[in-house]
Amino acid sequence: MEIVPINKYITEGDEALIIAGPCGAETREQVLETAKQLSQKALARPDGNGQVKVFRSGIWKPRTRPNSFEGVGEDGLKWLSEVKEKYNLKTTVEVANAQHVELALKHGVDILWIGARTTVNPFSVQEIADVLKGVDVPVMVKNPIHADLQLWLGAIERIYNSGINKIIAVHRGFHFFGKSKYRNKPFWEIAIELKTLLPQLPIICDPSHISGRRELIFSVSQKALNLGMSGLMIESHPHPDKALSDAQQQLTPVKVIELLSQLSFPKTFSNNIEFTDKLNQFRSMIDEIDDELINVLKKRISVIEEIGEYKKEHNITVFQLERWQEILRTRTQWGEKLGLSRNHIEKICQLLHEESIRVQNERRH
Ligand code: PEP
Ligand code: MN
């Protein structure tokens, strides 16, 4: 895939892409007031980061239950073109079918986005891709609601195959059936895997839909930037509590500007020789430690092979519940004494045990 970098069409240098605006457009006044406030400069940042470049708004809202606010439709598109004219912001809306795309393009929307409920459905994504053939417009693809990287990749590929090469992935968290402090659990490792598979693809984070409540937005945004994500998409409403959708997670524009001035925007790369020298020293220490680790693992496996042989001779089962419980209990205790996370040691023990069982089983056949 050859994906155009965002600084070729929307940002400058290595500046983060900042998108903000309401979950949904409700009235002309609300839209224009939000845009006016968001277009102000983030409190002077020496790095030039943190400026809102794109104004977002839902026009057609996919709601979980009927009889909720489902968006203002085409009227909202007229308000968005006023935003462009008056406040020097680019605009983006969510599109879920061919008609939405046609209307958005007719009204000069700069960037389209595909929502989480649409990414899950290949028929809908293909319908959108088909109508985009021959059009040069950037498209953002939110992750599907459930934690399925293939589905996210599939949607990106469908859009790319229709000739669109300005694509941005949006990480908005995943539905999680269980207890979580988030509305949508981040599962950061999925976004990291996507970046590993498609290094050129810019990924931005939507901390609003991950958090589901205002208090978490700062920490989720900072985490995303620390991981090297290329930007943020934040929901904002002049009177968040009165918002017709996603009231609990929207911030006033003033709070958005404040947040943007407080976040730190780490770089993925440094030209500073002193820094790179020092980092390389640390990295060679890690290389040596990992080399030792691999040798220790080899030693462990050699003993496992002997144990496997011995159990086989005596016709004893490979899996020994009590021994496994003992390993898990003691190793996590040893780790905790040294200040290592229990969860980390547990995961390592599980991997070691899985391999031990595999190696011993292999000798039985
Ligand atoms: C939205 O951005 O308002 C939205 C509906 O998000 P998602 O598709 O991520 O749920
Ligand atoms: Mn929303």
Your description of this structure?
It is built from 13 helices and 8 strands. With 365 residues, it is an alpha/beta fold. It folds into 2 domains: 6-262, Aldolase class I (TIM Barrel, Alpha-Beta Barrel), CATH 3.20.20.70; 273-362, Chorismate Mutase Domain, subunit A. An 8-stranded parallel sheet has the order 7-6-5-4-3-2-1-8. Helix 2 links the parallel strand 2 and strand 3 (90-94).
Which structural traits does this protein have?
single chain; 365 residues; alpha/beta; TIM Barrel; Chorismate Mutase Domain, subunit A; 2 domains; 13 helices; 48% helix; 10% strand; elongated; binds phosphoenolpyruvate; binds manganese (II) ion
Secondary structure blueprint with pairings:
Layout: E1 17-21, H1 28-38, E2 52-57, H2 74-87, E3 90-94, H3 98-106, E4 111-114, H4 116-119, H5 122-131, E5 139-142, H6 149-161, E6 167-171, H7 188-197, E7 203-205, H8 207-211, H9 217-226, E8 231-235, H10 253-262, H11 273-313, H12 321-337, H13 342-362
Parallel strand pairs: 1-2, 1-8, 2-3, 3-4, 4-5, 5-6, 6-7
Helix pairs in contact: 1-2, 1-10, 5-6, 11-13, 12-13
Helix content: 40-55%
- Tell me the strand percentage band: 5-15%
* Number of separate helices: 13
CATH class of the largest domain: Alpha Beta
Query: Helix/strand-derived class?
Result: alpha/beta
The global form is: elongated
Run of helices and strands: EHEHEHEHHEHEHEHHEHHHH
Q: What is the average of the pLDDT values?
A: 96
- How many structural domains are formed by the residues? 2
Radius of gyration using CA atoms only: 25 Å
